[in-house]
């Protein structure tokens, strides 16, 4: 890997890296589709360390057909009820006042959070393998670090990008997860899988970005409230501002990565940071919308939410 690959200019959202490009030397995407299996789509989020095997196998079954259809795939998954509770209880997201002076309790919480997310990762990998996908786990900790909760340098390190491309180049499906990571300023932090969506879409030249959850998309209010209506399209202006008038959201108290609001912001960041992505989809595991969104379409009448740039609408 490495060397002078064809350099496809990415939008100006971080330091340029002239030794690597966003596509393979033949101009194809490293991954056509990047999918985040949200914690809500692989776990029962309100019940501690409980797998949602029905939703998980539904999305894995849908993803399994992609390579047969000629599309390459990278997967991210969230933590759901494996990770958020420990992270919240032990203050892992907040970290320590001094990076090198972690309390014993914080170290315990960090270790438990990692055990929890890697346990879920094992379930996700197992479910993908069962569907015939050659899924290979990539754990961020300890190789990917943050500083004040943001990726060091604002991008993934070249070695991480090269490793991911190395797996894809050999026909594997890389699977990365939200994780507890080392942080330069606060010792430890939580790095959401949503951040990986932005980075992988950009670095792999993806065409389609799909966030899979346990509900049909974004609703005007929490979906369990009466009168909640599906929002079919969310517009993003070039500064990353989201048009969310009339939308209210609810976030579980133990969610340490900002819930749906943060996800929609990450989806906007995908549109800004990964010029190859035409639209970001927020869909339900196993739904017709999830099947369509994998292929970068969401026909009228199919329930799901599409997030697009305002200028795409104007064209
Ligand atoms: N207005 C809303 N529209 C849609 N979903 C909503 C809304 N308000 C709250 N929600 C909840 O947001 C959840 C999806 O966001 P969440 O942060 O749990 O995503 P996730 O990616 O699946 O989780 P994780 O961060 O664990 O990976 C849904 O399960 C839904 O119940
Ligand atoms: C809570 C941890 C450890 C990771 C959170 O990742 P996310 O569920 O993708 O936001």
TrEMBL record:
The keyword Protein biosynthesis does not apply. GO terms for biological process: terpenoid biosynthetic process. Its EC number is 2.7.4.26. GO terms for molecular function: ATP binding; isopentenyl phosphate kinase activity; kinase activity. It holds the Pfam family AA_kinase. CDD domains: AAK_FomA-like. ATP binds at residues 36-40, 80, 214, 259, 263. The record marks 45 as: Transition state stabilizer. Substrate binds at residues 79, 84, 193. Keywords: ATP-binding, Isoprene biosynthesis, Kinase, Nucleotide-binding, Transferase. It comes from the Eukaryota. Residues 33-278 form the Aspartate/glutamate/uridylate kinase domain. It catalyses: isopentenyl phosphate + ATP = isopentenyl diphosphate + ADP. The keyword Nucleotide-binding applies. PANTHER family: GLUTAMATE 5-KINASE, ISOPENTENYL PHOSPHATE KINASE. Belongs to the isopentenyl phosphate kinase family. This is Isopentenyl phosphate kinase.
């Amino acid at each position: 890997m490495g060397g002078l690959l064809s350099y496809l200019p990415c939008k100006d959202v971080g330091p340029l890296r002239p030794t690597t490009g966003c596509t393979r030397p033949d101009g194809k995407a490293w991954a056509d589709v990047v999918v985040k299996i949200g914690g809500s789509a692989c776990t029962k989020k309100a019940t501690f360390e409980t797998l949602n095997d029905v939703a998980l196998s539904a999305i894995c079954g849908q993803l399994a057909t992609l390579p047969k259809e000629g599309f390459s795939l990278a997967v991210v998954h969230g933590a759901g009820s494996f990770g958020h509770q420990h992270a919240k209880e032990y203050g892992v997201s907040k970290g320590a006042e001094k990076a090198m002076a972690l309390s014993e309790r914080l170290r315990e919480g960090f270790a438990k959070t990692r055990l929890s997310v890697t346990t879920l990762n094992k379930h996700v990998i197992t479910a993908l393998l069962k569907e015939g996908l050659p899924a290979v786990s990539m754990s961020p900790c300890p190789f990917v670090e943050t500083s004040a909760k943001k990726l060091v340098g604002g991008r993934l390190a070249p070695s991480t990008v090269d490793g991911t491309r190395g797996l894809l180049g050999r026909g594997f499906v890389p699977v990365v997860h939200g994780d507890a990571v080392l942080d330069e300023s606060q010792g430890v932090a939580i790095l959401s899988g949503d951040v990986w969506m932005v980075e992988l879409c950009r670095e792999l030249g993806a065409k389609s970005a799909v966030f899979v959850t346990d509900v049909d998309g974004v609703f005007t209010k929490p979906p369990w409230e009466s009168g909640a209506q599906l929002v079919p399209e969310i517009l993003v202006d070039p500064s990353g501002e989201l048009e969310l008038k009339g939308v209210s959201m609810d976030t579980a108290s133990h969610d340490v990565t900002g819930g749906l609001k943060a996800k929609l912001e990450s989806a906007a960041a995908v549109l800004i940071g990964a010029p190859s992505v035409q639209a970001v989809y927020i869909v339900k595991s196993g739904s017709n919308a999830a099947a369509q969104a994998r292929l970068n379409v969401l026909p009228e009448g199919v329930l799901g939410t599409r997030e697009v740039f305002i200028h795409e609408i104007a064209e």
